[in-house]
């Protein structure tokens, strides 16, 4: 079972890139972030024509998440992170596919930091920690994947000294990620590639992609039931080099059957 996550940075504007990638790699499940489209503008027909059923939570101009599946209809569990009923951002959606609960998330950026946006990021992280613990307590296979907007270690960022004051790399952000992982989650990419330089994002400025001046901010966290099923993980780095591509590259894992 191959599961991917991809911050598409505008599902309609990047639709040709998304469809090309889906056709080329054919993940069983694809979690998308930053749809940047209201609910009614989601390109449902094009996604269906590509062989995928989907659920999505749109929002005009910003945010937006979706889960695509070509191995059965995603059975939606929730479309908002618990803990703040007044938070209207479309940043989380959760479904069961093939017996696995999959949470697709787009964690707030948080810049400028310090400030209200950074406070929101940390508050969202706390809500994620609480929900993640609830999921673990249910003793079932779970994947939490998406754009976490955090580089967990210096290994995950090009020239870390330049990022010390950024919301994606501040100590509070990294501590929040490590606290989450310490509940019992497995960072899939780092587990299989502990020493490699792996990035999932390259800015559009200063030839970042060509220089490989990137960040690893798209992550897969696996519950204990899935750790031993993890057999491969990687990044489709070349997709970032396609014309009119997102500034993220698709990231994926492969799970062995039970």
Give an account of the 3D structure.
Its EC number is 3.1.11.2. The active site is at 106, 147 (proton donor/acceptor), 248 (proton acceptor). Residues 4-248 form the Endonuclease/exonuclease/phosphatase domain. This is Exodeoxyribonuclease III. Mg(2+) binds at residues 7, 34, 147, 149, 247-248. Strand 6 and strand 7 (100-106) form a beta hairpin. The protein is an alpha+beta fold and 258 residues long. It has a single domain (2-255), classed as Deoxyribonuclease I, Chain A. It has helices at 15-25, 44-49, 116-137, 171-181, 188-192, 208-211, 224-227; strands spanning 2-7, 29-33, 53-57, 65-69, 75-78, 92-97, 100-106, 142-147, 186-187, 201-202, 214-215, 218-222, 230-235, 251-255. It has a six-stranded mixed β-sheet. Strands 5-6-7-8-12-9 form a six-stranded mixed β-sheet.
């Amino acid at each position: 079972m191959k599961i991917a996550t991809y911050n598409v940075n505008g599902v309609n504007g990047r639709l040709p890139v998304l469809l090309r990638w889906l056709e080329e790699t054919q993940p069983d499940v694809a979690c998308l972030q930053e749809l940047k489209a209201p609910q009614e503008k989601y390109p449902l027909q094009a996604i269906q024509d590509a062989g995928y059923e989907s659920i999505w939570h749109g929002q005009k101009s910003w945010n937006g998440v979706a889960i695509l599946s070509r191995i059965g209809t995603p059975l939606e569990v929730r479309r908002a992170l618990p803990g703040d009923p007044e938070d209207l951002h479309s940043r989380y959606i959760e479904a069961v596919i093939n017996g696995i609960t999959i949470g697709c998330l787009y964690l707030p950026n948080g810049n400028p930091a310090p400030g209200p946006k950074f406070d929101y990021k940390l508050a969202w992280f706390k809500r994620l920690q609480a929900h993640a613990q609830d999921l673990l307590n249910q003793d079932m296979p779970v994947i939490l994947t998406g754009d976490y907007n955090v580089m967990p270690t210096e290994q995950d960022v090009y020239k870390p000294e330049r990022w010390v004051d950024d919301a994606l790399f501040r100590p509070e952000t990294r501590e929040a990620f490590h606290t989450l992982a310490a509940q019992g989650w497995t960072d899939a990419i780092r587990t299989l590639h502990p020493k490699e330089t792996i990035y999932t994002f390259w800015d559009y400025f200063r030839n970042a992609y060509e220089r490989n001046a990137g960040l690893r901010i798209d992550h897969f966290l696996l519950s204990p039931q899935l750790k031993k099923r993890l057999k491969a993980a990687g990044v489709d780095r070349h997709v970032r080099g396609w014309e009119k591509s997102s500034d993220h590259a698709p990231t994926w894992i492969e799970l062995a059957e039970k």
